[in-house]
Write a structure and sequence with these properties.
Number of helices: 28
Largest sheet: 6 strands, mixed
GO cellular component, one term: cytosol
Keywords: ATP-binding, Helicase, Hydrolase, Isomerase, Nucleotide-binding
CATH topology of the largest domain: Rossmann fold
EC number: 5.6.2.4
Family: Belongs to the helicase family. UvrD subfamily.
Enzyme class: isomerase
CATH class of the largest domain: Alpha Beta
Helix content: 40-55%
CATH superfamily of the largest domain: P-loop containing nucleotide triphosphate hydrolases
CATH architecture of the largest domain: 3-Layer(aba) Sandwich
Distance between the termini: 46 Å
Structural class: alpha/beta
Shape: globular
Strand order of the largest sheet: 2-3-4-5-1-8
Number of strands: 26
Length: 711
């Protein structure tokens, strides 16, 4: 941010939150005030009003109309004015009286402290008998280096239990929250400095220099200096879309830098992985791959997420730059690539492969040793395809780790007869499965000239659902290892489709470039706790042969606990849903995006028909979700992956529906059944963590075995 003598305006993310809650007529007046303020914050007509009894005399009031006021930080020196809050007169003044703005004298970040709330928290944490604090071994200066404001250091010294940690987290700036969560999870201080990239402070920090403070990475996570009218207009038009402007320091450090090779970023639901992926593409296309011929590929596992990313990326990338970013799910990319090579095949899925499986199975049924058709499908997927077995010889040599049914050599030979027939049926129709299509693409790319990569960078979302072959293809597409070549985000706790993989076995080396996002910016901590309890007892991988956990995964927001309601009949459940949906729809002053999320398409049809008096819009498979608040949405659990809503309602969570009984009945062995149950848990976790405000779960009859009481 260049220095300038002209008056300038910066806007806080909290201001945008509050602005979005105002009535439309007041928003219009505030917008007019901001435009005048932006043109010249020092003009006489703005009438800065002092606030009596404020703790920070730089905080001033600006009149919006007779009833509303905006709160501004008017600097003693310099030319940056900060727009911090807007509310009704008394509420705005009370907000200002409670707060102090300070520049952290170690980290250099601009921080706002709610002094009254801090006093309440301090009183709550203070014990009659003094005890050693959890962070007593950390110096004041190191705590401030981690982002803790000086005023909060003594309160932090009172923290002892995990409950104390959760009590103080909402009072901390977001950059400090990340660090304190890691300290509480027993990370070493130096490891935290390294992972969060907290540099040694450089010299004395000017406590009044807002210009320098607003260039600090931590400050950039909550303040933006307006550079032009268009930027201001776009921000006010979509105040809730803060992800377009603000990145948490841990996110920004992943996005805005050069990496000497492939990067893997893990993070629980709501940590902003997709946001990081999109901003990474924006930064690369604007700062590194700027030539007209440079190209970036963003690829996903599901088609609908690629549509959603495309729609969102267009809001932060210029029309010219977006032309150089190819956003497509991997199967679509393979289909197009093979056609460009003159190979006319069609990648097919269960709707077309299931009849072929039945035909192959029935033709050689006398040799199947009482093995179910589902066993053959799972054996094909988990052993044959995963290990690229193309001949009986390959299949006889491969190890079958993780499969519950033992097979001798003769049994494998009989089983291969069914596989061979299935492959013939595919070939006769010009069909190939996704795995075969990817292998064909890899072979073609490897035979081509490797001097120039097809894309300067490949960015992968939903990495946990990609197969071993998929990552080998991504390696081939990206070409030889080089700076900024591959960027992968994922979370195996949300794995709905794939199997555990090891990136290094796919030619992707992430050593020293494995990162993790820990803060959930979407859901309340009440929802996070309930959703993570669903996964209790499951073990997930880190895409590199290790184990990933959610032990240091936290939400900073608090709200209502999930509501779990059971009913004796379907009719009683529907009556309750009517009541809830009408209540949410009629709250027009604070519009909410609500989505009804169901396990299957047939359940969507059933519930939609019985709620027909309420306007409900289904989110289609191919259509991106635009986030409009005109109606209540409805979708399957798989479809809402990657989306977010204010309220999530999950009806029909009965014993037969989750885990889905029709799927479990097909399990050929205990190992497969356990894997399917784990994926059902992950699916419910995904559905619940789409909620920003609250989750409501209903059922009639016997509840799902996955359902737990709200904590």
């Amino acid at each position: 941010m260049p220095m300038t003598d002209s008056p300038r305006l910066a806007i806080a993310d909290d201001f945008l939150d509050q602005y979005s809650q105002l009535p439309r007529r007041i928003q219009s007046k505030v917008s007019e005030l901001i435009n005048r303020f932006h043109r010249d914050p020092t003009r006489n007509g703005l009438n800065y009003e002092s606030i009596l009894h404020t703790r920070d005399n730089r905080l001033k009031s600006l009149r919006v109309d007779q009833d509303y006021r905006a709160i501004v930080l008017k600097p003693k020196t310099g030319n940056i004015h900060l727009l911090l809050w807007v509310d009704k007169h008394d509420e705005a003044y009370n907000w200002a009286k409670r707060r102090i703005c300070q520049i952290n004298q170690v980290s250099g970040a601009l921080q706002i402290i709610d002094v009254e709330q801090l006093q309440l928290t301090t009183e709550k944490l203070t014990r009659e008998t003094p005890q050693p604090g959890r962070f007593e071994h950390i110096s004041d200066r190191d705590l401030m280096r981690l982002g803790v404001p000086e005023m909060l250091v003594s309160t932090l010294r009172q923290v002892i239990t995990d409950e104390d940690v959760e009590e103080i987290l909402p009072q901390l700036p977001i950059e400090a929250s990340d660090a304190i969560i890691m300290l509480a999870a027993d990370y070493e201080l130096e490891e935290i400095f390294q992972q969060l990239e907290k540099p040694q402070p450089a010299g004395k920090i000017d406590p009044e220099n807002l210009e320098i403070a607003l260039q600090n990475l931590d400050s950039l996570s909550r303040y933006v200096v307006i550079t032009n009218d268009t930027e201001l207009e776009e921000m006010l038009a979509a105040p809730l879309e803060k992800w377009r402007v603000f990145l948490h320091p841990s996110q920004r450090k992943l996005v805005e830098r050069d990496w000497n090779g492939a990067v893997r970023v893990l993070g629980g639901a709501g940590t902003g992985k997709t946001v990081v992926a999109m901003h990474r593409a924006k930064w690369l296309i604007e700062n590194r791959f700027t030539q007209p011929t440079d190209r970036i590929l963003i690829t996903t596992f599901t088609r609908n997420l690629s549509v959603d990313i495309s729609n969102n990326l267009k809001t932060i990338v210029t029309p010219e730059d977006i032309k150089r970013i190819n956003i497509i799910n991997l199967d679509q990319w393979v289909n197009k690539f093979l056609k460009q090579q003159g190979i006319e095949t069609e990648i097919v899925y269960e709707d077309k492969t299931d009849p072929l499986w039945e035909k192959a199975y029935n033709q050689v049924k006398e040799n199947n040793h009482n093995l179910s058709l589902e066993f053959y499908k799972q054996e094909w997927k988990q052993i044959v395809q995963a290990n690229q077995c193309r001949t009986l010889k390959d299949y006889l040599k491969v190890t079958r780790v993780g499969r519950g049914t033992r097979l001798n050599r003769q049994q494998r030979q009989y089983i291969w007869i069914v596989f061979e027939e299935y492959m013939n049926l595919l070939s006769e129709r010009g069909f190939i499965e996704s795995e075969e299509g990817m292998r064909n693409a890899i072979e073609i790319i490897n035979m081509q000239d490797k001097k120039e990569a097809k894309y300067q960078s490949v960015i992968v979302d939903e990495g946990q659902d990609m197969s071993k072959t998929a990552f080998k293809l991504i390696r081939a597409i990206a070409g030889t290892t080089r700076a900024n070549d591959i960027f992968i985000v994922g979370d195996a706790h949300q794995r709905l489709y794939g199997q555990p993989i090891v990136l290094s076995q796919c030619g992707i080396d992430i050593k020293g470039r494995s990162k993790k996002l820990r803060l959930n910016y979407r859901t309340t901590d009440e929802t996070r706790k309930w959703a993570t309890e669903i996964l209790t007892g499951t073990t997930v991988d880190d895409l590199e042969g290790g184990v990933d956990t959610l032990k240091d995964y936290r939400s900073l927001m608090h709200g209502e606990k999930p509501i779990i309601r059971g009913f004796n009949s379907f009719e009683a459940e529907i009556e309750y849903l009517y009541y809830i949906l009408k209540e949410l729809r009629e709250n027009k002053d604070k519009p909410n995006i609500t989505c009804i999320v169901l396990r299957t398409e047939s359940l969507i049809k059933k519930y939609k028909e019985n709620l027909k008096e309420i306007e409900i819009e289904q989110i289609g498979r191919e259509k991106g979700e635009n986030g409009e608040r005109k109606s209540i949405k409805i979708a399957t659990m798989h479809r809402v992956k990657g989306l977010q809503f204010d309220h999530i309602i999950i009806p029909g969570l009965t014993r037969e529906i989750m885990p889905l009984e029709t799927i479990l009945r097909k399990s050929p062995d205990p190992a497969t059944r356990e894997e399917l149950e784990t994926k059902e848990r992950c699916l419910l976790y995904v559905a619940a963590t789409r909620a920003k405000k609250q989750v409501i779960v209903t059922y009639h009859g016997t509840p799902s075995s996955l359902l737990i009481d709200s904590p």
